Amino acid sequence: MLKPEKMVKIAIIGSKEQLAATSEILYKLNMLHIENPVEDEHFKIGVPFEKAGHISRTLLQIRSYISYLKLDPSRISVKKKFRKADIEEKLSAKLSEYQEQIGAKLEEIRRINETLKSIETEISNLEPLKIIGVPTKLLKDYKSIRCFVGLIKKDPTEELKKITSDFDLIIKEYEDLFVIAVFVKAEYGEEFFKVLQEYAFKELSVPDMEIDSRIAEIEKTKDELITKKGKLEADIEELKVKESELILAIEEHLSMEVEKAELPLKALTSKHTFVLVGYVPEKEIDRFKKEVGSRNLIVEQLDMDEHEIPPTKLKNPNFIKNFEILSKTYAVPKYKEIDPTFIMAIFFPIFFGLMLGDIGYGLLIVVLSLYLKRIFKTDGWQKLLNIGLASGIVSIIFGFIYGEFFGPFIVPGIKNPNEAHFFGDLLVGLYDFNHGHPLFDRVEEFGVKVLLFIVLIIGMIKMLWGFSMGFYNVYIEHGIKEAILEKGCWISGILGLFCIIFGFSYNLGIFTSPPHDGFGKILPENLYVFENTVKEARAVPLPIPGLVNGWEAGLNYFYLVALPLIVIWFLIFLKAEIPKMGVFGVIMAVELLTWLGQTISYARLLAIGLSSVYIAFVINYLSIKVALEPGMAIFPLAIIVMLLGHGVNFLLGILDPGLQSLRLHYVEFFTKFFEGGGKEYTPFGRVRKFIDEGGE
Amino acid sequence: MVEALIGDEAFIKGCAAIGAGLAVGLTGIGAGFAESGIGAAAVGAIAEDRGFLGIGLLFTVIPETIVIFGLVISFILMFAFG
């Protein structure tokens, strides 16, 4: 589970005539991840089979229909698979049928659209002519008179008068322009035209017949065309309903054929032979050899040397597979690396629930995920929604522990649960077994303190865990010495840091004071090196010499343990960095502070949750005040406040815990051990959706 | 007068509360500044390719750690003096 599947490198050798048959069998097996070949002087990359070009063209055509019909294979659930032989038999008949039924009709629709567009332009031309109010037969050039009809920006009369005053002009407003008709003697025609052009004149073409009858004629043609187009579209729609599965099956068949025909591009060929090199999962190798070897092909197992990078095939049980989309977003693990999906599958929902922790919001997430799962059928959505489902369930569990249902019912400072929550009494009744208190009250001060401590411990464990896995990864790749130099020293360093955090907490009295100030007597009262200084110790959280008088009072055993750990880290660190970086490598030691920051960063598990709890509480409190307070009883307003508030808080409650939980993995956890950069295992072949394998 | 105040417990509590508020508020502004640049770049990337949505959101929340530090400091202040 934690490691990707083991791969075996193989070569397949055969004579060139067998390449087509090999392509068929390999495609059917869907097992071989083929390496891209490198040419040399004897072996060249092959050429695709002859039929490839023809199939590609047909495929392109089918895909253009599919894109027009907006067919989405992921949204279609297959009722009956087609037999391959049937498809091959029907193929050419169906193709010409589609050409006729879809291709030709699409072409006609395109033409109709064009005509409609030109009709629209003509109508928009005729509108202004109507406004002028002059019969169209008069609006044209005469023997000795020029006539200009068109749209113009401004009234040009003044400018025209400068040329001659002997002209007629009709001007009317049309939208934000003017429509104009000018009649002038032909000899002034040129000059008038120039002036008009300066006013952005746009000529309108004048029809031969009367405008109204022309418009009526056009409208009639337009209606006819629209009816015709509607009929064509209905025809296509009818075909879509009837044939969509077959079209997609043909598309699948053709893409498979193209992929098969292009196999030679991944093979090295000499005059008579071909070689294919690739990887097969180790557990499948026997079946693979049996199937391929029986066809007069030679299957040779090759040795893998150190530098070779086989493809990564993640090996996870079904539930955990859902989380691969999250871990792959970060990177695909290298072949020899630990695959972190498993760890993520456990901790992502837990972190999410720990942050959100509300029965109501959790239930909403579960219901929403289940509902969306029925709508979005694609693989990615299904996986994402499964993650949502798991996270929602964990949120409900934590919600029960925290005692929250769309907000808390016990809040410091508010004595009556009914003032903090609409169902305050009901929730108190639910927790009757625990004296009306939640199992863990994270809103109260002591609860915050305990939770902060718990999440920091989780942080420490995950930091150590991350570094240990990093240690393992480096050990596998480069040996024990490198592992200690690169990762081991940091383990010692952060252990020292953790001791310092504990020492600090101890001095603050977390482990020794009774609840509300601390956890009670978890640890003995006196863990101080200088035993007579217990009383003053609280004043000095960090024993830094010179900082405070009597620093030795704060020196407890945690600090004493931390010191050698930090020294060990520093020495190993120097040994590792100085040869690489020179003396300035010392500066890199600052990185230890980064790890301190990252440990504290786990406090977000507490912080994000608390913020959402308080938002929920404020919404409840507000709406209760609005609804029930004397003189304020505006119930509908209270409902609006509540729906709006909880809606926003719910969205934040999905987004923030989700992102932060993801981030805690990517930034604080993966960086310790996970390098990624592997290539994914993509075998030659595909899982058929519309075509039945048995039919071959 | 100042010395008298320093000895006063209420004064210390008040200062701690102001400090806690400053710790959260100022770190919030800091994180906001940091996120503005990342957010703008992320939106740019998402406009080019919707596939960046997840990664873009993730990068945008990275500086939020600063607020968490502020919050931890404010908790410590409140625990110690509040």
Structure in words:
The complex is a heterodimer of chains A (696) and B (82). In chain A, β9 and β10 form a beta hairpin. By secondary structure, chain A is of the alpha+beta class. Helices cover 56% and strands 9% of the residues of chain A. Chain B has 82 residues and is an all-alpha fold. Chain B has one domain: F1F0 ATP synthase subunit C (F1FO ATP Synthase), CATH 1.20.20. In chain B, α2 runs antiparallel to α4. Chains A and B meet through α15, α19 and α21 of A and α3 and α4 of B.
Short description:
The complex is a heterodimer of chains A (696) and B (82). Chain A has 696 residues and is α+β, with helices and mostly antiparallel strands. In chain A, 56% of the residues lie in helices and 9% in strands.
Overall spatial form of chain B: rod-shaped
- Average pLDDT of chain B, rounded to a whole number, is 86
Number of strands of chain A: 12
Largest interface: A-B, 19 and 17 residues
Number of domains of chain B: 1
What characterizes the major β-sheet of chain A? 6 strands, antiparallel
Predict the CATH topology of chain B: F1FO ATP Synthase
Kindly state the percentage of residues in helix of chain B.
over 70%
Top CATH class of chain B: Mainly Alpha
Backbone shape of chain A: extended
Strand content of chain B: under 5%
Largest sheet of chain B: none
Mean residue pLDDT of chain A: 85
